[in-house]
Amino acid sequence: MLHTSKRLVGYSDPEDPACPIRLSFSDGTEATCDVVVGADGVKSAVRATMLSSLIAGTQSPEHVEKLRDSILPRYSGAVTHRAVISREKFTQLPQDSSVWTVGKLVGSLYS
Question: pLDDT tens digits for 12-42?
């Protein structure tokens, strides 16, 4: 089931994999699911909850500090540009007009 207009504030992942995951939303409502996909943006409640759970089960002070530092977003130095164009315009582009590799721009739609 898809829930729209909701803000996830956390979730609880039970020890038993047969039990559902409980989601908690800012409006006080809850839902259950089998899988959580953390696609909730740069201020991810999924990441914060997951890392907080890992911290609770970690004994190493160095590991705890590293996990705590990962909860809040920070600039990594990488930038991503995205664009949406219509299918009609896309099919009119030459096939070799855009070539991308991981982390390096080889070609451009604007060249």
Answer: 988 888 999 999 999 999 999 998 888 888 8
The yes-or-no answer on residue 68 being catalytic is yes
Count of beta carbons in the 10 Å neighbourhood of residue 11 = 21
Beta bridge partners of 31: 23
61-71 helix and 45-56 helix, angle to the nearest 10 degrees = 170
Residue burial 59-83, b: 16+ Cβ < 10 Å; e: rest = eeeeeeeebeeeeeeeeeeeeeeee
Cα dihedral across residues 54, 56, 58, 63: positive or negative? positive
Q: What phi and psi values does residue 60 have, to the nearest 5 degrees? A: -75, 120
Which of the residues 22, 68, 82, 87 is marked catalytic?
68
pTM: 0.55
Which amino acid, residue 57? G
